[in-house]
Specification:
The protein is of the alpha+beta class and 373 residues long. The protein is built from 13 helices and 13 strands. Strands 5, 6, 7, 8, 9, 10, 11, 12 and 13 form a 9-stranded mixed beta sheet that branches.
């Protein structure tokens, strides 16, 4: 099985100077941040101390400001500029990773088409999330061919209804907003044609800077003057959930500064806040944890994979079910901050998962527009 990996790569130029390739620099800076020592960091990334020191000095000359603070008692620490370079790289990766991973999957399958006897891939459309990442990693480890497309939950289930994919990932809140969320998805999910694999339970909430300097505690605080919000893209399951919560709380999105902003993953929202460009956003707890942010829980939700009942005996689907029902996969899910493996791997009819809310409604064309302008 061929595996294509595409990583973001960026450079910085200034006037007529040669471009600064950030790849090696960032590895070194992150190692210094971890070890507190230039010499230890150089060894970790496989560079000589002399070369590392010279590169750091060249970069400081380029920017005209230091990258490091040296204190005999505290070791070597990063300056705000060095920290900003690291955050810039993390934000780039958070923003581009779904697109690059989808493109890599497409290239893998195009290469595979030229090879005689290549196994037909499993077509997976899903919103980007940490449980989905864990599943993809396990399927790759098992050499199961996967044609991946990261897209929002609405588009994923719509694609399933048109037989454009075999599995469609989507998430539904538990509690008072469940019925309305299910009504959105059952426009495309048919109780007579589709069933569900329960992937995980996860917690959605608000991301805020460490120690919560703006004292943001409830949804009402999003509308306070001076609070900068960063949103998910229209059509995403998280934005749909936010719209339901705001409507339930009587909060107008027009009163929220930054509501029309768009980031395409939970990690991208977290990176945006960690970079200081916003004060608050909504997403899953794992992203807040990985970017060192405080987290204010709002609601738990279930993440499902929908699939045709007619494919339940397909060897690829059986392999997916075997992976999801394994004890190792449950361990991976429980290791994610804010995730629970309760019911992970359970196969459900729509009526078993959602009760009477699973009654199918007329199919409407998927839209990328939010219910709010």
């Amino acid at each position: 099985m061929f595996k294509v990996i595409i990583n973001p790569h960026w450079e910085i130029t200034h006037d007529a100077d040669a471009p600064l390739d950030t790849a090696v620099l960032l590895d070194l800076l992150m190692s210094i941040q971890k070890t507190g020592s230039i010499s230890k960091a150089a060894r970790l990334v496989g560079l000589s101390y002399r070369y590392s020191w010279g590169m750091l000095r060249d970069v400081e000359k380029l920017f005209g400001t230091p990258l490091l603070n040296t204190d005999r008692g505290r070791g070597t620490t990063l300056t705000p500029l060095a920290e900003k370079l690291i955050w810039a790289d993390r934000r780039i990766r958070a923003r581009l990773s779904p697109t690059l991973e989808s493109l890599a999957s497409e290239l893998e399958n195009e290469i595979g088409k030229t090879i005689v006897g290549k196994t037909k891939p499993l077509r997976l459309d899903a919103s980007h999330g940490f449980a989905v990442d864990a599943l993809l990693h396990q399927l790759t480890e098992a050499n199961l061919p996967v044609d991946l497309r990261y897209r929002n939950s609405t588009d994923a289930v719509a694609a399933l209804s048109r037989s454009e994919c075999d599995l469609a990932g989507f998430h539904v809140p538990l509690g008072e907003f469940e019925k309305k969320a299910v009504e959105r998805y059952t426009q495309w999910l048919n109780p007579r044609e589709h069933c569900l694999i329960h992937l995980a339970i996860r917690t959605q909430g608000m991301f805020v800077a460490p120690r919560n300097p703006k004292k943001i505690l409830t949804l009402q605080d999003l509308a306070r003057p001076g609070v900068r919000f960063v949103n998910r893209q229209a059509g995403s399951g998280t934005r749909m959930l936010l719209e339901l919560m705001l409507a339930g709380a009587g909060i107008s999105p027009f009163d929220i500064e930054g509501y029309q902003s768009n980031e395409f993953t939970h990690s991208a929202v977290a990176a945006y806040i960690a970079s200081g460009m916003a004060d608050v956003g909504v997403g899953v707890q794992t992203a807040a944890h990985r970017f060192g942010l405080d987290f204010i829980p709002l609601v738990k939700e279930r993440y499902f994979m929908a699939l045709p009942l007619s494919m339940m005996e397909d060897p690829l689907i059986q392999h997916v079910i075997e992976v999801v029902q394994s004890g190792y996969f449950r361990k991976l899910i429980n290791g994610l901050a804010g995730y629970e493996s309760t019911d992970t791997g359970k196969i459900l009819l729509l009526s078993e998962a959602f009760g009477t809310a699973a009654t199918r409604r007329p199919v409407a064309p998927p839209t990328s527009e939010s219910q709010f302008p």
